[in-house]
Specification:
The protein has about 350 residues and is of the alpha/beta class. About 35% of the residues lie in helices and about 20% in strands. The strands form 3 sheets. It has a 6-stranded mixed β-sheet with strand order 1-4-3-2-5-8, sandwiched between helices. Strands 11-10-9-12-13 form a 5-stranded mixed β-sheet, with helices on both faces. α1 packs parallel to α2, α5 crosses α6 and α5 packs antiparallel against α7. It is globular, with a radius of gyration of 19 Å.
């Protein structure tokens, strides 16, 4: 699927890629945060690495058909992690075919040698929310993506903090259950293992919940049942919320964030997730410097990954000069380009 707005001015235009376990989205984004052209493909997550890369290339091909393509000066990628921005590689937990996959070099080749900046999807989401969303005006913030996996990113001192490899703030793999189930990352008891969409749905099914007539056994189906008052579905969301609250409280104790912004497919459940999340956070975040910690739903919606990837492209070397006044809290020397 591709849509295009009036070509008009292309000042500060960049190519943005948002790569996750279920979809690969691409866009041409301008300096004001407007998505001018977009394309989408499902992620062939269980296929080999080259098949996944062909899906990425198909998205880029659709974007390149736009007359705006030639005006795009750089590429930003927000990818499911972990990523290694120093080496330009990705090893997403939910895309087994990509292990130390040289994504930056492959995208650079596919886009005619444009400079490419890589960050984790949670970092991209944090950048988008700090720039245009619910964390705007907050100098210390955590952004969370709760979907097929659980990712995160940090803004500290008013500046995006991706860390040396682009993974800082990866809250999904904070351990919150010392004797918990094994996680796909190789650890045990991680936030992701308790709060991601697939694990939330699996928990509900294991406790006796059954999907309705539509047969939707995903987290969205559990959310619909929870909204209808199903006690097993409600309990599954409450458990996921407690895991998220424990991870947020731990992060806040370490780096003194004052807001956590939660997006992704699971967060679309609304207060079914946020009410127990706030209650659990009040139990965990009890130190004096944590008591004013706020949790809000993300405001940039499903475009958060694309907008954050665009922000990363503007901040990296070769990013369009016309966008510098719009970038979220990073300077040219702070690039995570490989």
């Amino acid at each position: 699927m591709q849509t295009e707005s009036d070509p008009g001015s292309a000042e500060g235009l960049v190519i943005a890629l948002d790569i996750g376990g279920t979809k690969i989205a691409g866009a041409l984004v301008d300096a004001g945060g407007d998505i001018r052209v977009r394309a989408l493909r499902p992620t062939p997550a269980r296929e080999d690495g080259e098949t996944v890369m062909r899906a990425v290339e198909a998205v880029l091909t659709r974007l390149s058909a736009s007359p705006l393509w030639d005006a795009a000066g750089a590429v930003g990628i927000g990818s499911a992690g972990p990523v290694d921005a120093e080496r330009g590689t990705v090893s997403p937990v939910n895309v087994p075919g990509w292990r130390a996959y040289p994504l930056v070099e492959r995208v650079r080749r596919a886009t005619g040698g444009r400079p490419v900046t890589l960050v984790g999807d949670g970092v991209a989401m944090a950048a988008a929310e700090h720039w245009l969303g619910a964390a705007r005006g907050h100098d210390n913030a955590l952004g969370l993506v709760v979907s097929t996996g659980v990712g995160g990113g940090l803004v500290l001192g008013g500046r995006l903090h991706p860390g040396p490899t682009g993974n800082a703030g990866h809250i999904g793999h904070i351990v919150v259950d010392l004797d918990g189930d094994p996680c796909a990352c190789g650890g045990r008891g991680c936030v992701e293992r308790l709060a991601s969409g697939p694990h939330l749905a699996r928990r509900a099914l294991g406790n006796g919940w059954r999907p309705g007539r539509d047969g939707d056994a995903s987290a969205a189906g559990v959310a619909a049942a929870a909204h209808a008052g199903d006690p097993i579905a409600l309990a599954a969301f409450a458990r996921a919320a407690r895991a998220l609250a424990a991870g947020i409280a731990t992060t806040a104790a370490l780096v003194e964030i004052d807001i956590a912004v939660v997006g992704g497919g699971v967060a679309r459940a609304g207060e079914i997730l946020f009410t127990p999340l706030r209650h659990a956070l009040a139990e965990y975040a009890t130190l004096s410097f944590l008591r004013d910690l706020t949790v809000l739903p993300a405001a940039t919606g499903t475009d958060a990954g694309l907008l954050g990837a665009a922000a990363a492209a503007w901040a990296g070397p070769g990013g369009p000069a016309g966008a510098q006044g719009s970038r979220p809290g990073r300077e040219p020397g702070d690039s995570t380009e490989a």
